[in-house]
Fold this protein.
Amino acid sequence: MDRLIVSGGNILSGTVPISGAKNAALPCLAASLLTTGKIVLDHLPAVADIRTMIKVLQALGCDVTVDKTKDAFELSAVVKTDSLENGKLEAPYELVKTMRASILVLGPLLARFGRASVSLPGGCAIGARPVNLHLDALQRMGAKITIDGGYIVASVPGGRLTGIDHTFDKVSVGATENLMMAACLASGVTVLRNAAVEPEIGDLAAMLRAMGAKIDGIGTPVLTIVGSDLLGGCRHAVIPDRIEAGTFICALAAAGGDIVLERVEPDDLRPLTDLMTITGCGIEEQSERGGAVKRLRVFKDPGVRLRSRDVITAPHPGFPTDLQAQMMAVMTQAAGISIIRETIFENRFQHAMELERLGANLRVEGNTAIVAGPSQLKGCTVMATDLRASAALVIAGLAAKGDVTIDRVYHLDRGYAGIERKLQTVGAGVQRVKGGRV
Ligand code: UD1
């Protein structure tokens, strides 16, 4: 198992290319199941979760060809699904257990073929994460669903799902995506209320529209989808990863310096950047006139102390739960008390214990963490427990004295493309140790 060794104390300077958004790329790959046309996807991040989703598509019988960009931070994929008709249409446990987002193939498969079998994802490190919202809505569209041998076995008796007017009990990114995809090939109109409004949903909708889908209300909690008989192929460029960009903003805040993030969508980052400005970081948009590539300059004088802020996670446009761990690492370096409340997942504070091992002064009470800063963190060995928790440990390492050794880096590799190489480009002391040996 690989480890990362982070040697803190370096000031960051230079340009970081931001990869395409993992959480947009995953549903876009699943959406290719809705058509017999050729799908070309650009700006897929070169991360383990994307490789897993490609394996899920291949296990279903899709023909997927992958090309790497020169720097190997991104991939392009061509997906063809014309040989699926008589296939088993089963997403196997071995793949689904490693990545819950595999559930996103259920809606498209049911919509196009009227049958599918997808392993139940089970719990994960950050909480129970059920899929009831996905299944309830698909059942209302006419799907018959049973659980058999750990698998969701679903079929549509009439062959085609029917449009519904449906209010989600709770805002769910994945359920909104699954149902939006299913509705594109259903008969009649589907209205999805209390839908998630995350930018990744807008990106999926843009791809579906390019395939010919009729979707209104993008960016609002009420989506109206008029079902089509057939969707075509398309070429789609996935939006930049706001969570990867946000992680680098947190890294800069902890280490100090001056960096430019290349290919970002500044509006999608506002819940973080507005808060970072208040804590004492400089943020400057650098979009070229008429230019497609937007950049964000982030700077902080290493001699100036950050100010603490309270953080409460919420669905977009609130503060993203996927940046809560990284923000906690930053707050260990800020002067004052920061109260961090996690409202999306019930068990998303495992990084708190590891930050404490590094010397952070914090306490967890239920879904709230109280961080008293600033603390001088000191190097030791810590364990990555989930994707974003691992990123928090890297950020803490940048601010620590001595080496921080992070075990179980495979969590990080699920969602960050070449994180140590990108950090090295801006001067951070980060080294990957292959197979756990120095
Ligand atoms: C997606 C993101 C993940 C992010 C999360 C919240 C992807 C691949 N992953 O995950 O990085 O942290 O959104 O922004 O895009 N819930 C139910 N029943 C369901 C579905 C969800 O109770 O059927 C609950 C979950 O347990 C959680 C909350 O709803 O408490 C939000 O989860 P959801 O938005 O569905 O997260 P994901 O789509 O799994």
The mean pLDDT is 95. The CA atoms of residues 91 and 381 lie 37 Å apart. The longest strand covers residues 334-341. The first helix runs from residue 22 to 31.
